[in-house]
Amino acid sequence: MSILMGAIADDFTGATDLASTLVGQGMPTVQAIGVPADSFDPGDARAVVVALKSRANPPKEAVADSLAALTWLQDQGAEQIIFKYCSTFDSTDYGNIGPVADALMDALDTNFTIACPAFPKNGRTIYKGYLYVDDVLLSESGMKNHPLTPMTDANLVRVLSRQTPHQVGLIDMNAVNQGSAAIRARFDELQEAGYRHAIVDAINDADLMSIGEALASVKLVTGASGIALGLPENFRRTGEMSGSTDPTLPPTNGRSAVLAGSCSIATRSQIVAAQDHWPSLSLDPLSFADTPERGAADALAWVDSQTADAPVLIYSSADPDAVAKAQDKLGRDEAGDLVEDTMGAIAQGLVDRGVRRLVVAGGETSGAVVQALGITGLRIGPEIDPGVPWTETLNEPHMALALKSGNFGAPDFFMKSLAMLP
Predict the structure, then answer these.
(1) Which carries the bigger pLDDT value, residue 349 or residue 324?
(2) What Å distances lie between residue 32 and 180, 401, 417, CA to CA?
(3) pLDDT digit string (tens) for 137-156?
């Protein structure tokens, strides 16, 4: 059975977020880690989300990886493609959202797409082209201090215009409130006027459902996971898909652990909440910069000193001043690479010690962990908090894995996630 929808996500947590949204809308979905090998079998899935680690890569690398993913998805029969990025539009003035979107459009031979990172359930809304995070402009939110992609402009038309040589238009709430027919009419107007991209306003899920219906014949859709809410229904209308999905996962036996690398306000509050319940260890990259292997070795020695029946929490998350200090001394990219490599090595050591329930916070950290463990694919399970599901690894060792975007989840997310598992 060929797939109906293919998705390319620029990080691993965003991929599980999108896959969970599709499953929630009744579309059987699996997640592939990296561009799949020929032996990858999506089974009865009608959608495959290819998770890349391309958000902070140089644009040429991000484009090449995304085009490779597109080729594989087209070979599987995908009729519509989603380019998934973060609901806070994480990027720099030179990419990677604009360059990747343009490259995918060229490959698909289409000259119009939309950009809609709205995700109302997690407080991401767009009005008059401005992105809000929990009713605060993006540029006034914690994202202004992001260590890799600081977001200091909330006007998405301006942001995307700096990343593409093509015209970027706006479809505002006046059209969205009138429903899918009016939205499609605006697609046509902008396209005829020479616009290649359009930011689309959305402040609630009903808006996203209308936008999704309007996108039925659009080859490439770009946005956060919320944009996928209304897409599966288009395939039901044509009779190409029916039925529902079962997100239940089998019981997983083994130790539990949490690895947190995100420096977001949300993740840091989740760490504080978990420290009242579990033993925790803070990683300071400056303390092992001269001997990188010592960071993982010392952390795993600490794990060995803890009782096996309690979850352990290991985190590198820190406030912006501490992050800036490490970046000033080590270099921005070097500091990030050091932490990611260390987290990957710790994850390997945890699995060797019998950990089979693992929560990872942060997109870059999740990418490092999944790659270090050699995970090739994930089956999507029940949602923990909006945008974050439990998953089951498709290859050995079978384990329960939750990949959390740094900005997502309630303060008690870590405790809640492990309490869900039987």
Answers:
(1) 349
(2) 32, 14, 22
(3) 999 998 998 888 899 999 99
311 CB neighbour count, 10 Å cutoff: 22
Domains belonging to the chain, first-starting first, are 5-237 (3.40.50.10840), 255-420 (3.40.980.20)
pLDDT of residue 247: 81
3-state secondary structure of 345: helix
Angle between helices 12-24 and 363-372 (to 10 degrees): 90
Contact 161/197 with Cβ under 8 angstroms? no
Both tokens of residue 376? 């090739």
Sign of CA dihedral 217, 45, 7, 212: positive
Distance CA 263, CA 315 (A): 10
pLDDT in tens, 108-133: 999 999 999 999 999 999 999 999 99
The token pair that represents 56 in the structure block: 């902070």
Task: Give the residue from 362, 333, 377, 368 showing the smallest Cα distance to 348.
Answer: 368
Q: How far apart are CA 159 and CA 168, in angstroms?
A: 10
Which long-range contacts does 68-76 make (Cβ < 8 Å, 24+ apart)? 68/35, 69/6, 69/8, 69/35, 70/6, 70/8, 70/104, 70/107, 70/108, 72/35, 72/36, 73/3, 73/6, 73/7, 73/8, 73/48, 74/6, 76/2, 76/3, 76/6, 76/42, 76/48
Whole-prediction pTM: 0.88
Higher pLDDT, 7 or 325: 7
C-alpha dihedral (145, 149, 155, 158), degrees to nearest 10: 140
β 312-315/280-282 pair status: parallel
pLDDT grade for 318, boundaries at 50, 70 and 90? confident
CA angle 289, 293, 371 (to 5 degrees): 105
**332 phi, psi to nearest 5 deg:** -60, -55
CA end-to-end distance (rounded Å), the chain: 33
Q: What's the chain's average pLDDT? A: 94
Amino acid identity, position 237: R
